[in-house]
Amino acid sequence: QSALTQPASVSGSPGQSITISCTGTSSDVGTYNYVSWYQQHPGKAPKLLIYDVSNRPSGVSDHFSGSKSGNTASLTISGLQAEDEADYYCSSYTTSSTWVFGGGTKLTVL
Amino acid sequence: EVHLLESGGGLGQPGGSLRLSCVASGFTFRTYAMNWVRQAPGKGLEWVSAITGSGSTTYYADSVRGRFTISRDNSKNTVYLQMNGLRVADTAVYYCAKFGGVDVWGQGTTVTVSS
Question: Which of A42, B6, B36, B38 has the highest Cβ tally under 10 A?
């Protein structure tokens, strides 16, 4: 049950695009298209941004997008805005019928 | 509207017990697996446990296996987490969540383990 690997921090200027990676194994990200991405502001519950690798729930801005290649999933935020500054987590279903999260990435908007 | 509401958090002593509850509404509860996820202060999200829709199969993270028990009562649209043998490291906000497709999370309930 090792956590998925995410960079501890990323940063970008307003209007720029950034990508957060989420690396797993053939037991999770590499096998299933059940990868989700969450945004969490301090003191708040996680908010779903992307599910099933690349799908956005209703109401989530289209400047969030997701993709996957092999054992690595990615979240891209285009046109960074100040309010995007938050923690971001990925998750994946696993071959053990459990779920695993990434360690989280702190996004700083410069 | 789909909604999850946790309760039962509070202060527990090392070695003690707490029972968390999560009441669901807005979806056909019995057809969905349910999960508990926790977040220790200043730390990331950690999946804790899951139970199938019928309640027949349960899953646990290594960190809680043998101490925590997940269960559900589909007649009450409620999932539970019985936490025994509490440790200081179990201090966290505990979230109830429905995964698969568009996830649903509760607002969380805080568990503090301290003497």
Answer: B36
